[in-house]
Amino acid sequence: SCFAELGSGRGVEVFLRSSMRGEEGVLYFVAAVPIIWLAVQRQWRAAWRIIIALAVAKLILIAFSFALAPQGFAANTTDFRFPSAHVLMAGTIFGSLGICCARGLTRWSQALLISCFAMLVVAIGFTRLYLGVSWFSDVFGGLLIASIIVVMVSIAISTVPFTKVRPLLLLSTAMAGFMSAVGCNLRTNFGQEVEH
User: Fold this and answer.
1) Distances in whole angstroms, Cα of residue 187 to Cα of each of 69, 183, 190, 193
2) Suppose 181 and one of 29, 70, 109, 176 were both cysteines; which one would form an S-S bond, judging by CB atoms 3.0 to 4.6 Å apart?
3) Band (95; pLDDT cuts 50, 70, 90)
4) CB of 22 within 8 A of CB of 178?
5) Alpha carbon of 168 to those of 31, 99, 109, 173, 178: distances in Å?
6) Of 112 and 191, the one with more pLDDT
7) Separation of first and last alpha carbons in the chain
8) C-alpha Rg value of the chain to the nearest Å
9) pLDDT confidence of 147, banded at 50, 70, 90?
10) Sequence-ordered list of residues with C-beta below 8 angstroms from that of 130, at least 6 positions apart, any chain
11) Do the Cβ atoms of 67 and 77 come closer than 8 Å?
């Protein structure tokens, strides 16, 4: 990786913590929030469309997984796949969450919300590059496929009438769940990841 030479002990630790925000266990916890939220609101079609989007993303990961690993800080063949699992799942989940939360907001609020989620996904992708555990093509492929899935979710959900969804409460609940899941993941798995 082109960033491997730049890495310092402290830099690797910071980027590893950031990369752990994109692990599938954390992301599945975040994905459960809008699905459960929509189910409680009896928005079954919207909840099922998000579930289908996650299933499609996971099937893509399974179908296209292969190990062509760059040599980086944490060389383990289970980390390497095309597309990047961290980026694909983060893009799909945060994109779907953004679509659900953007309904009913002003255009500027929608743009701000989607931009923040996009920056989070790009940051996760950059950390994978910095740590040397993903190729640029893996990260770019993950972003591209996640974008396609999110556009399909947006089109599918646009036909569903949202009533009583309360997007800001959904957003704050999802972000609280995300921060809690990240904290638990860092507390329980950070030591193993550093040794890895």
Assistant:
1) 27, 6, 6, 11
2) 29
3) very high
4) no
5) 16, 12, 11, 8, 15
6) 112
7) 17
8) 17
9) very high
10) 1, 3, 6, 7, 11, 15
11) yes
